[in-house]
Amino acid sequence: MASNEELQAFQNSTSQTFFALYTDWFRQMKSQLRRIGLTHPQVQVLAALQELNLKEDEVTQVMVAKKADIDPMTASAIITKLARADYLDRFPGKKKARTKALRINANGQAHLDEALAILSDFEKDYWKDQNPNRQALIEAAKKSL
């Protein structure tokens, strides 16, 4: 059984401070993206797909998962949902018959552009916000460094 000292050390640890700050940041960011019906992982996938579309002739799910730094199965589920929502197009690949190639479409590009603008504004506002609770989290994280 953990002692009171061990529990207090855990509660006051650097990892707990960063977790509290991340949780606050994530909740706020999620709320901002909810306005346009996207999640952060969906934005990651759309951004990775767009970047790859600019560089590659043919983009696959595996390439998107690697670029977005997410598990291939998770990427597959996100890509399927984005395709159903008409944010990207899937079509037979030229290199391998079984592979589906991906391309962001005009609707997906418009939503990605909007999401990137929202996230840019959010990042600026979040870190300069004068909310005392948030500032306390930020200061605690800085002290932990």
From TrEMBL:
<protein>
    <submittedName>
        <fullName>DNA-binding transcriptional regulator, MarR family</fullName>
    </submittedName>
</protein>
<dbReference type="GO" id="GO:0003700">
    <property type="term" value="F:DNA-binding transcription factor activity"/>
</dbReference>
<dbReference type="InterPro" id="IPR036388">
    <property type="entry name" value="WH-like_DNA-bd_sf"/>
</dbReference>
<keyword id="KW-0804">Transcription</keyword>
<dbReference type="InterPro" id="IPR039422">
    <property type="entry name" value="MarR/SlyA-like"/>
</dbReference>
<dbReference type="GO" id="GO:0006950">
    <property type="term" value="P:response to stress"/>
</dbReference>
<dbReference type="InterPro" id="IPR036390">
    <property type="entry name" value="WH_DNA-bd_sf"/>
</dbReference>
<feature type="domain" description="HTH marR-type">
    <location>
        <begin position="1"/>
        <end position="145"/>
    </location>
</feature>
<dbReference type="GO" id="GO:0003677">
    <property type="term" value="F:DNA binding"/>
</dbReference>
<keyword id="KW-0805">Transcription regulation</keyword>
<keyword id="KW-0238">DNA-binding</keyword>
<dbReference type="InterPro" id="IPR000835">
    <property type="entry name" value="HTH_MarR-typ"/>
</dbReference>
